[in-house]
Predict the structure.
Amino acid sequence: MNWKAKPHSKELRFLISGLTQKNPFLKTEDLLSLLSAVREKNKFFVEEIPFRKLKNWAFDSKSGNLLHKSGKFFTIEGVDVKTNFGKVPEWSQPIICQPEIGLLGIITKEIDGILYFLMQAKMEPGNINLVQLAPTVQATRSNYTRVHGGKIPEYLKYFLENSKSIVLVDSLQSEQGARFLRKRNRNIIIEVNQEVPLLDGFFWLTLGQIQKLLNYNNIVNMDTRTVLSSIPFIRNDTVTGGNSNSLSDLLKTAENDIDLFEMDVDITKEEIQSYVLSPNEELFGMDDIIHWFTKLKIRYELDVVSIPLIEVKRWIKTDLQIRHEENKYFSVIAVDVYAENREKMSWTQPLLKPQGVGIVAFIIKKFNHVYHFLIQGKIEPGNMDVVEMAPTVQCITGSYEDEKTKDMPPYLDYVLNASPEKILFSTRQSEEGGRFYKEENQNIIVRAGDDFPLQIPDNYIWMTMNQIKEFIKYNNYFNVEARCLLACLGLELIRGDRN
Amino acid sequence: MNWKAKPHSKELRFLISGLTQKNPFLKTEDLLSLLSAVREKNKFFVEEIPFRKLKNWAFDSKSGNLLHKSGKFFTIEGVDVKTNFGKVPEWSQPIICQPEIGLLGIITKEIDGILYFLMQAKMEPGNINLVQLAPTVQATRSNYTRVHGGKIPEYLKYFLENSKSIVLVDSLQSEQGARFLRKRNRNIIIEVNQEVPLLDGFFWLTLGQIQKLLNYNNIVNMDTRTVLSSIPFIRNDTVTGGNSNSLSDLLKTAENDIDLFEMDVDITKEEIQSYVLSPNEELFGMDDIIHWFTKLKIRYELDVVSIPLIEVKRWIKTDLQIRHEENKYFSVIAVDVYAENREKMSWTQPLLKPQGVGIVAFIIKKFNHVYHFLIQGKIEPGNMDVVEMAPTVQCITGSYEDEKTKDMPPYLDYVLNASPEKILFSTRQSEEGGRFYKEENQNIIVRAGDDFPLQIPDNYIWMTMNQIKEFIKYNNYFNVEARCLLACLGLELIRGDRN
């Protein structure tokens, strides 16, 4: 791939695409019916089955681990966890092991001055709605290093090293630390200048359209959301300085190239500029935040040891599931997947089924006229480096139904009882349907009122959107729940300022 | 500790201290004799002994691991390594395991407008010269979390969370990946405004003095060098922008406060300003470098499994050492340490003894009038995340004495044969004397000539000093060899520009 083509305009081009709803190829509302059409046409079925009906999957006779006969895909094993974070100092649990780094990639292409994203209507057995909007490619490392043979995913060739694509964003990002052991995916967005054939089930969408679809429940899949979260809208140097590439200069250039305000953009240039922060307006500098994060990595211990699944304590295995004895957290189940389409595709696999709907929420508040996000330093057993930065609230709501407010995680009560005018965003979004069965989280952004307590727990800190985006660039700072929630917000903070 | 006191001048204050040689408390040349005095006064002795004479250390009868009876300090165990990086696809080796995060901390204090660093003359058994210049505090996690009792190191209280110190720099940094299994230390510099008592064996030095001492062989210890490497001299926003905190503004303020050019600073303001880079002058942007690094993490596999020391293949255990059958790499030895001073201190411990002098070298070259460093992406078994950024050359020179040029690591030949006028810096520096026995590396900075090949291997990239400093802020980007070499360079690039 080539180095840094158009480096000075990447962020602006993302911003313009993010503010664009108009798409001559496909209207946003038509995409919803197209997704339904894919569902209708293929008649997908997913049924829970007993473990013994799994094909090619079996429990290892010695360890009890659940494995695929090929040694590929993933395994379900056990971990023993000790930590001084939270209320439970020690437990064991089943966990998904998938050491290969997967690829989540989106192809973009500039058409008439607007960056379009090549998205896919993709079926995953665990999806609510079965078919959701996915990145151009979801591939395993074996796929893209061509170690094994097998079918190569469509469009993968554009992501391989010898291709002529231009890389816009490329970093490793973590997955759910409560469910995966140190799993990461490569999140990559490329730009292709040559002709890209449009295959059946694929669509060119503006970033603004994808953002719009995030206002619906369970339409945009998790893999899309995590990739979107790594998109920078502001160059770091335009944020912090005023050199020749400042946003206003860039916007000026853009106005010459394309008439921004002739497009379907209900926003003023001043509002976009208000998005630009100077570091003096931040409550804490990056060095302060790194110091805070370093302290947490010192303070909290996380000792995770792999154990055979058979040795996991307080979990019960039946014919149909492996579940916690108090029916908490999640269970491991098996499903049969088939479609009555031409390809007659069919397979069985294990999935993790949650015990209830989760909640992920950011509380945001203006300091120095700039929105800050209340970020939690959170320990999860699958974390690569002890702590990751997480949403203000991240939990299974059902687990706390019987609890008194004081026993709830910090701020859960505040979020659950926020008055409607404080809620900037609230939709249900699915977790990865290839591993999780109908798992969804209520994704909420709450604006804190003037009554919000300024005293916060030690493992919380306030950060601006631009600071969050800067940390996301580097490995293993923000967890997947925080990143996906941030993706939902998109450019909403600009619009939100008006309310 | 308090948040961000004097945040706008931290970098400038480091810069001024780095340019200051004059110290009313202690002349640089006197420090050398003071170190000698400490050596004379204490009469330290270190003797190699057979393993059976170790007190409180023993080989575990089952695993063969070398352990302290208290379970504290460190252990020597085995690892089995598989990788597709380099020429050897699989091997096993002894490795030091020390899961606790240690603290390497320096206290600074502003006196008459100059930041002084509180340094210590510290004896470590493996040190060449025995006594070297160390940070104010080297402590284990047990020390500073006060989990165990035991003696608390001097000055540690200034680093504890309830102290009134101001944190200037605080991040986790890796140690030698070829010798330690995923070991990290907290590198922290604080500023204390209250009175700090000066204990025997401690000295207040300017940063410029410490930099000067780095021109001598084996005087400034490794722990000091790694902490110094995390010092920022330029605010990122002054690098990339031109807002009200730009360097020239800051210098103006400083000139009002203290007369910079009345000090022992043989440098002009313009030369300092030439140190400020704008991102357009960089060969690659940060995003490009992250993309390069992501590709390496995907391309290279590193599979490290802990094994009992007894199962390490091709290593031989004798009464006196554990060594590779070809006498390569290093050996594990035991030493008896004692001092004929008042405290009558004495102990025994294992150390790692290298098979020869190593070499770490940066090749640097000006592109767009700005020096760029040729950085290597390097895999080492103890790395936390597969790849770290390493010096252009990092190896044991002796291992390649019999090799032909084409079999040598890239650029070793170029560095070894560089003509004197190309060598900007060359001294011998010691590795950590608490773990390594008289291990030293020739630290070299070579200016590439016009003949330098522009085609570089895929796992190399050019970066500016400011980009390196930015990556060092985050965890596990730059390895300890690269960081320590960078610390040696200090502000030399400004001076070097004149030659």
User: Anything to note?
Assistant: Confidence is low (pLDDT under 50) at residues 1-8, 237-246, 255-264, 495-499 of chain B. The domain at 10-44+100-235 of chain B is CATH 3.90.79.40 (Nucleoside Triphosphate Pyrophosphohydrolase). Chain B has three domains: 10-44+100-235, 46-96+304-354, 279-301+356-496. The first strand of chain B starts at residue 44 and ends at 49.
